[in-house]
Every structure is written in C-alpha cells, then in structure tokens.
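Help!! Second protein's tokens look totally different from the first
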Amino acid sequence: MNFSELFKLSGLLGRFSPDGRCLASCVQYRLVVRDVSTLQILQLYTCLDQIQYIEWSSDSLFILCAMYKRGIVQVWSLEQPDWHCKIDEGSAGLVASCWSPDGRHILNTTEFHLRITVWSLCTKSVSYIKYPKACQQGIAFTKDGRYMAVAERRDCKDFISIFVCSDWQLLRHFDADTQDLFGIEWAPNGCVLAVWDTCLEYKILLYSLDGRLLSTYRAYEWSLGIKSIAWSPSSQFLAIGSYDEKVRILNHVTWKKITEFEHPATIANTKTIVYKEVEKSPSVETERLSFPPTRALASSLFSTQSKYDISQVPVSLQYIKPVADRANPKMGIGMLAFSPDNCFLATKNDNIPNAVWIWDVQKLKLFVVLEQLCAIQSFQWDPRQPRLAVCTGNSKVYLWSPAGCVSVQVPMEGDFQIVSLSWHSSGDSMALLSKDNFCVCYLEREEV
C-alpha cells in the first residue's frame, strides 16, 4: 500500500471524476483538478467566494461549484478552460445545487424551498418546479438517468412529481400518504420509489413509476421511527434502519419483512467473528536511535500502531445511553451500506459508536463485528469487490474483506485525522480526507 503526500483541502471537498481520470479538490475559493495517476495539477480555477459544494457532471467534462452564501453557482469546463458559466439566483438565494443525469442541466433549489430552477447549459433556457419540499432527500434520479422524482409540499400535504429528464415534462403527480415526508429514493432498477416519513412516525411507502402505491410498511407506532434506508444493488432488498437499533429487510416480491437484524451490546453467537482493534507500541532498534531523533523517526515513535485481535465470544461492546432530552439523539441505525456484489450489508448502531456490523445477506446472519478504539466516522465499500474501508478520525485506515482485517497507519508527519474516505471507481485507490488535508492511498495489485 502506498500513500501520496498531503494536499490542502477545505470543507471535505475532494471528489474523483466519474470516468476515474481526475481528482477535484477545493482550497477556500480555489478549485484544483489533478490527474489521478500522477497527481499533477491539470487545471486551477478561481471562484468568486469560498466553495461550499462541488459536483462532477456525469461525463466528467464539467464541474459545478456552489457558493450558497452568495447564491451563485459557477461551472468550469475541463476541455475548454477559458469557458465558464456563472448562475446567479439573486435575491431568491440558494440552498442546494446538483447536476441532472445528462450533465447539461443544473438544478438549483432557492431559499425557503420556494422553487427548483432548471438551467440548461446548451440553450440557456430556464424551467421552474414549484413547491419543492424542505427535507433531507427531496430529489431523486433513477440510475439510468431517465426519470426524476421530486418531493413537494403544498396546502399542508405531501406530493410526489415524476419528471422525464430529457424534456422536463411532468409524467405523474400524486399525493404521498405521509404526515411529513422525510426522504425519497429510487431502487437501482428504477422501477420502485421508496418514500419515508418523519422520524416521529415509522412509515415507508413504495410507489411504482406510474404512481401506484405498491405497499406500505410500518414496524411499530408511538416511538421514533426510520433513521436510514439502503437499497441492495440488485433491487431485491430494502434495508430500513430505525431508532429501535434494528435493521429490517423487506423483499421485492411481497414487500414484507423477511428478517430483522438486532444490534445488541453483547455478542454471544460463536459463529460471529469479532475483530477487536488493540494498540501495539512501535518497536525501534536502539542502534537506530539518534539524538535528537529524526522527524520521521519521531513521528513513528509517537504514533500508536494498532492491530486486530480475534476476540473470544461472548464479547461486550461499549454501549452509550443517549441523552433523552436532546433533539436527534445518538441512537439507532445511522449508517447502512450494501456491498456491490450484494453479499454483505455493513451497519452502524449509533448507541455503539465504535463498532461496524457486517451481515451475510445470503444467510441473513451476522458475519463479522469490527470493534474499533475510536468512534466510526465513515465507511465505504470498494466498488469492485466485497472490501470495506473504515475511518475513525485518527491517522489510520482500516480494511475488511472476507479474507481478514487490517489496520494501516498513514505515514504522515503531524496530525492527519481521517474523517471521510472515497474509493476510486477502479477500486485500486482511495482518497482519505481530513478537515484540512487529503491524501491518496494506492493499493497494490496483489492486495486488490
């Protein structure tokens, strides 16, 4: 495994291009585009203000930079560096911006969610979608890029509109049977739209492309409900994480629950492998010690190495009781992700912040638990194979695959606390992001 040097970064804005050739990163108001293989700077763009969001177009030819404070979006072209586009929403303000799947339209959501403005880069024409809902996930595109669903709120009721992305014509408009819709997400095959309600009410609705209600699922009432959802890549399963520390799996034939995964503080099943991260002090040969020590030696002396031990079950995990009188309590299933081959599901229960749970989807059983020394910040599956990368806010990256588990210290001087990571589409490198810096980690072909 090899690591690049550290590069400056702000706002955790580091993104690989969809074609895998470039890596874009932001430093305050500058956008830097690098070649992925050499990390040489290809283009340097200067924006009008500090960049708060970036997104590549689907064909990797354009980059959108949003400056929400100023209500401005700037678009840059990789092929023609002199060409640029500025979209100013003026007094309407700006709270969100994204590309359409064709990479030639930009959708801007104005302040107070008064409307979504669809700007065309080709014809400079503008379309408006009124009454978008102010919620966590109010716009969803099908994977093939043909349809867009938008959550709307009017007359104190929730609605869903489905648009054809090629000409922005309204295909279907129907009311959603929710109290206060929280999010929408298409199945990867684009046939079913999942719509879920506010966390105050456990309710998930499944609609077909033509607006028919296929099914409604409610696990319980009178308690905090859904916290996270994830579709399996095959669209066969819908995993629903909730505040009661359970994941429920619905099947795509009857939309009934086929199983539920509990996340108890004690793991007793002998068939579950528990990898526990333990610190190991670095060994240094006394002959190599010089005074004063070299910087590289000093940093390796003071950075604690770690390794994984296999724990004997039963194992008690560190459990945190949430504070009852605060909003958004740290409890329940906050993170869910299926592996790209559909074989595994990784979850995190916020009551047990230091553990990642990996479930065998074929056997519908708990397979592995990773117990870390620090709280899990982020995890992401390798897009090409069942391999999970985890970071916990320190200078290490952790990799799990069915073959085993490894902890890798990033060899950097100073404090490099990894809080987010992002795989390259090839699966042979990833960007490791901290608050102020990022580096690229390259995996050897044998490791891949």
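Here's the second one for comparison:
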Amino acid sequence: MACFQDSIESDKIMIKNIFYALVKKKKWAAAHALIVKLASERRLEPSVPKRYIAGLCRHGRVYEALDLFYELKKLGQEPPLRIWNSILRCSLGIGRTDQVWQVYGEMMESGLSGDMKTFCILIQAFCKERRFDEAYGLVHEVLTTGGVPDVVTFTKLIAGFCKEGDYSKVSQLLHLMIVKNCMPDLITYQEIIYWLCKQHETDEGLRIFNELIERGYNPGVFTYTTAMDGLCRAKRVNDAKMLWSQMLSLKLAPNVHTYNVLIDGYCKLGRMSNARKLYMQMNESGCKPNIKTYSILIDGYCRQGKVSQATKLFEEMLPVGIKPDVITYNILIRASCKEGNADNAVKLYHELLESGLQPIACSYTPLIRILSSQGKMSEAVEFFSDMVARSLRPLKCMYDYMIDGYCKAGNINEAVTVLVKMLEEELRPKRRTFNKLILSLCAEGQTLDALSVLDAMLEMGCSPGQSITYNVVYNLCRDQKGNAAKCLNEIIGDDCMVI
C-alpha cells in the first residue's frame, strides 16, 4: 500500500514538473491541454492552474487565462479564492474593470465572499473608474470589519483624490493609515507631491518634500524629479537647480527624465545655453538622451527663432539611433511655417510619411494656415482632403484659414462653400472670418450673399461691428435702393424695424 501511495505522489511530482517546464517555456497551448485533462480526470491540484493563470497574466495573455478559468468551471472544478483573486487582479491590470465586476459577481454567486486581497482589488477598480467616493466608502466598510487595505490600495485612492483636488479626503486617508498602522510610504507622498505640483501648488508640494527629509525619509530620484518638475512648471528653474545639486550631493544619479525636466525648464525660459550645457553633461555622464530630450531642445530652439540650430540637432538624431517621432516633425513643420517657409514645411511632412509615421490633426494645422495665407489654395485643399481621408477630424481653425485664403485669392464662392460646410458641421467661425467674408462679398457686389452671411452671424450671437454694418448698408442702399429697408428688416426682425 505504501509503495502504491509513493507511486501516486511520484506521479504528482512528475506531472507538476512537466507542467512547470511547459509554463517556463511559454508552451501555453500544451499547458492548457494538460490542465483540462487533469481536471476532467479529477486529478488537478489548485496550485497548477494558479501558476498557469499567473504566467499568462504576466505575459499579457489575460483572455486566455479567462478562457481556462471558465472552462474549469464547466468541468465542475470550482476555483479556490486565490485563483478568483488572480483573475480579478489580471482583469484590473488590463483596465477591464467591467470584467472585474462580472467576475466578482460570479464569485459571490459561488458562495465566496472574498478576502482582503479581493477588497483591495475592488477599491482599485473603483479608483480606475474614478468612482473615488465609492472606493472611500468601501475602505470604511473594510475597516469596520477589522480589515486594513494595503499601502498600495490606500495610495491609489489618495492619488485619485489628489487628482480631484480633494485634499481634505487625502488628509483623512493619511490619518486612517497612521491610526491603522499602515504607514504611508515614499510612493504615497510622491503622489501627493506630484499632484500638488501639477496643480500649481508648488510651495505646498515642496513643503511636504522637505518634511519627508526632516522625518528621515530618503527621497529617490523619482521624488526629486517630481519636485523639480513642479518648480520648472512654476518657472522656478533656479530652485529646481538647487534640488538638482542636492540630489547630486547625495550621490543620486539623475535619470533621463530628470535631465529632461531641467532641460525643458531652461528651454521654456529661453535659456538655451543652459539647456545645451546640461544636454552635453547628460551625454558625458553616460545617460543617453531619448526622443523627448531632442524634441524639448528642438522646440526650445524653434521658439527662439533658431530653426537652423533646431534642424542641426534634428539631423543628429538618426546617426545616434534615435528615430524622430510625429511630435518632433510637427515642431519643425510649425517652425518652418512660422518663418514663412512653406516649401520646407511640406518637405518635412513628406519625410514624416516616408519614415512610416502617421500624421495627426495638428500636423496639418500650420500647413493649411501658411498655404492659405500665401494663396496656395489647391495645396491647402489637398492637405485638408488628405487629412479627412485619414479619418482625422479637421480643427475649426482650419476652416477659418481656408475661408480667409479664398477671400484673399478672390475666390469668394469657394469661401462661401467652406463656410456652409463649417456651419453644417456645427462649427462656429471666428468673428473675423465672418467679417472678412462679408467685406469680400460686398467688394464683389454680392450684397444679398453678404446679407445671408450676416444673418448667419447674428443667429450665432456674433456681433458684426460698426464698419461691417456700414459696408452692408452702403452696398444695400446702392444696389437694392427701394428694397434695402425690406431686406434689412427680414434679418434684423420686427422689433428693430428700419423705417
């Protein structure tokens, strides 16, 4: 009998070893088939599917994990709580909160009520859906039963209330954590500092940062970078540089994000020599610049009107293995357009396409603007059509640019066509667009059309101004003579009749 028992145990160990080898080698289909076979023969141990499901989730194959989960249920293998929690956690990890609630509902129906891990996942799911008050309520429910959520869950909820600007709730949660001996960690405070700085409460964020140091916490590079970012956003780059020096004195090596924050701070203030110097230090330190570093510097040079230096830096990217992205191209396209160099802007756009990138709406905005302003309407229309063909929604300003361009080119009928299209899309033209079109129509002697545009303008609650009104009335009196008062009354209405 003992030999028989030993044989069974030996088989179990062998099966586990085979299974673990399959998971390690990522042979998911074979591992899946083995689990189903073991389950159908009632020889499946709970640790086996748990390892498989965890492995799938780690590699982003959550739906395969869910398939097995439901397949086991059909075979009468009711999963233990830890597998339910694995599925809940994985569903949360891919942002499928709907799946979290569905699985949790099925779990309740199966008679399991969940443990602290379950409730932590549910609280985080509420946070993911920005249902922070419900998450807060569930925290209190858990506390009344004697449980305490973990520090990660508390931090998620604190970050949520920080994002909402509800710092009274943040204070209450911090107090609860301390009372329940779940001490806030550095990441908790990093979230608070980050959101305070992002919401322009930089002084308060800095106060908490300094308090952390006084209490014996050792902020890492991320915390220093967060505080520096807040200071740079507030244009306090010199204060950010002081934190930089403090960080270096503690032998903390800045990462690429830290360099980018300070370089961006200098660029935003036009201090390009400081930004360039820091960029050189970055290379010397062995910290490789990334695409964001180059985009920040290129944008900084372009804002200073130093497009040639920006272009030189742009040309340095590919040789060092960094491929420009659509943002980098957009910066240079915008700068070229600002300089009036439409040809270079168009050339950059085609380079963007040739590199395999897809343009976005703001890639087209400066191109349509400059081409329209230079009267190159066929090219402007070509870009507009290309944008629509790529399923990108045109921005309102693009219609304004094209109407202005057609008016300058003397093609008033096309300008009216664009206006009609704009109104059909329920977009509101700028006041100057209406005015430009009305004046152009009056200049061409199309007074009745000018009246129609004026009518649309008034219906949208937009005032034409005295000079536009004078032009319309003058042209109406000249062209329509006896019908002038009647036409005006039709637009203005009976309450303000022209006698």
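Reply: Different proteins will give different token patterns, so don't panic. Residues 2-24 form the longest helix (23 residues).
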